[in-house]
Design goal:
Elements lengths: L3 H14 L5 E7 L7 E9 L2 E9 L8 H19 L7 E4 L10 E4 L7 H6 L4 H4 L2 H13 L14 H15 L5 H11 L9 E3 L8 E4 L2 E5 L6 E3 L2 H6 L20 H12 L5 H27 L6 H7 L2 H15 L1
Antiparallel strand pairs: 1-2, 2-3, 3-5, 4-5, 6-9, 7-8
Helix pairs in contact: 5-9, 6-10, 7-10, 7-12, 10-11, 10-12
Length: 332
Amino acid sequence: MADGDFETNLASAIKKYIAPDATMENLVRLTAGASQETWSFDAVTGDSSQGLILRRPPRGVPESPERAEKQQAEVRVLKIAYDNGVLCPEILFEAHPEDDLGVGFVMDRIEGETMGPRINRDDQYAEMRKNLAYQCGVAAATIHAIPIEKVSFLETISPQQNLDKLWETYQKNFEEPSPVFEAAFSFLKDRIPTNGRTTFVHGDFRHGNLMYGTDGLRSVLDWEIVHIGDPMEDLSWICVNSWRFGGIDLPVGGFGQREDLFAGYEAESGIKVDPSQVRYWEVYGSLRWGVTCRGMAFTHLDGHDRSVERAAIGRRSSECEADLMILLGEAV
């Protein structure tokens, strides 16, 4: 449920930006989204109803000016991606200060499923799963085809900078060292890619941020950490074991094979995928998620955003240590 002021202010914004006679129904906060509030509702005008989504930081207040800038960049990027044929929602309006909603934006609600376990196991998706890894490869290639000059306002992050930033975060959030994480840092430091491409990167291309239907992939969601960098970061992230939900023998999200993911990417982009480079980013991804999990635990513990979800995610840091031991062992 929403508090009264928030609900009243959102209903007023719907009349302002959608239609003067529009009313709001079925407002509910979704459980998805650990770093952003995600609200679902319907804008009803006469006999028609339009499903919409509001995304904003917790309570509409960014953690910092930097987070506010990232929110603005997300809106700009979503508009560019939509105009460039990427599978993503259409932005309908941004909240302004006079709307008293905080920093946020409203977009189309695309119906479907985002929960990885359901996609990987439910019978209704069995036929769709056969081609899903290929479709994800195509979608990633479409994202990476967005001209860099259209997103030049984004930060460019090299593989070296990615690793350096993760090390800084690790030092900040770990009161006690993790031998496994530090072994992974050492492994990555010696293998940083130096000859990769530089493109637009989604940055969080995986289960939970992909919307599926029985017909296949419908939309790519959650564009808050987009940047310019190595596109193989996206191809590897969906292969990290944390996003397989038990389907460990199917490395692409627990539903497909890397070869099919690469085939879809190559068919759409015309560019050959280097599996060894994807493997580097897969190790990086497991390390990144482990460090992120620990950071979410501290966000809960310090009271900034106390939630069962953040606390539960924080406990998964140890799972990433186990994943990294396997990955590092395979690389020896």
